[in-house]
Design goal:
Layout: E1 5-6, H1 9-16, E2 36-37, E3 63-68, H2 76-85, E4 91-98, E5 116-120, E6 126-130, H3 134-145, E7 153-160, H4 167-170, H5 172-182, E8 187-192, H6 201-220, E9 229-234, E10 246-248, H7 275-280, E11 284-288, H8 291-295
Parallel strand pairs: 3-4, 3-7, 4-6, 7-8, 8-9, 10-11
Antiparallel strand pairs: 1-2, 5-6, 9-11
Helix pairs in contact: 1-6, 2-6, 3-5
Length: about 300
């Protein structure tokens, strides 16, 4: 594989630390290294899309985004993500998601491709509902909706509940991203923490949009058999101010003191070691998942 573009999470960290400047410690740290992205794709005439933001004056290659989730096509999180993505210039958005909640199904696929039908998000954006797992939704999108001309990027979520550390393996949100990545499509999974509070889906939107803005060219230039998967988990800070900022951290291999039971957005802890620690201390945790994890069982 020959890298033709490089994702820039470190630059994103610098920009988005400003988001949390009004709450908590101003000195939230960065961490990790920049992942390398590779995938070359063609524009898809088959994808059904709705108008998004006004196109740029110059001729720009549209970024074709497949949006999916595991909470179901009628969930609040995917609706907020779709409406946010529509504000970006030069994007084409296609929604293919499970007909019903499929949380906890990981990267499983049905033995026989399940049926699909026309549907819509809560805000009325056209969608396809698949009567199967999140992985089935991605497979249907790649095989039928895009019919051999894959999208440039898969966005999975926003999930109701965190998908950090060991939980990521069971997550249908992350699982959908992994299925797409195995087909050579870069993927971004976004989850909004719900540890004792209602998930604040809007809190994750700025981080998602900024990541896409910073990494657009790298995504479009990517070529390879295995797409990278970026996993974002965002703290919900009900009654505690705002998210402290963005940190790039590795996937936790275990929970140091048992399963995390709450989030403290007023914490002053800095330099978290992993995504679970970052989340419970009020950060948005950005993790580039290891290739072995993305590939799954042989």
């Amino acid at each position: 594989m020959t890298p033709r573009g490089r994702f820039a999470p470190a630059l994103l960290v610098a920009v988005l630390l400003l988001v949390g400047a009004g709450c908590g410690d101003d000195d939230a740290s960065e961490g990790g290294t920049e992942p390398t992205a590779e995938l070359s794709v063609e524009p898809s005439p088959e994808a059904t899309v709705e108008p998004t933001a006004e196109p740029s004056p110059e001729s720009v290659q549209p970024l074709r985004i497949l949006v999916t989730n595991d909470d179901g096509v009628g969930a609040e999180g995917i609706d907020i993500v779709v409406e946010a993505l529509r504000t970006l210039p030069d994007v084409e958005i296609t929604v293919v998601a499970p007909a019903e909640n499929q949380s906890g199904t990981g990267d499983t696929l049905s033995d026989v491709a399940p049926p699909a039908e026309e549907a819509a998000t809560l805000s009325g954006y056209p969608a396809t509902a698949v009567s199967g797992t999140p992985g089935d939704s991605v497979r249907h999108a790649l095989d039928v909706v895009f019919a051999g001309n894959p999208p440039d990027l898969i966005v999975s979520g926003s999930n109701e509940g965190q998908n950090v550390g060991p939980w990521a393996e069971l997550s249908g949100t992350v699982g959908a991203a992994r299925i797409g990545a195995r087909a050579g499509v870069p993927a971004f999974a976004i989850s909004q923490a719900a540890l004792g509070v209602e998930p604040d889906f809007e809190a994750g939107v700025p981080f998602l949009l900024e990541w896409i803005t910073q990494n657009r060219e790298a995504v479009l230039a990517f070529e390879g058999d295995l797409g990278p998967v970026t996993n974002l988990n965002v703290a919900s800070c009900e009654g505690q101010g705002e998210v402290r900022g963005l940190v790039e951290v590795p996937l936790a291999t275990e929970f140091a003191e048992g399963e995390p039971l709450g989030i403290d957005c007023t914490s002053t802890q800095e330099n978290p070691d992993d995504d679970a620690t970052a989340l419970v201390n009020g950060y948005a945790a950005l993790t580039v998942l290891p290739e072995d994890f993305v590939r799954g069982a042989a």
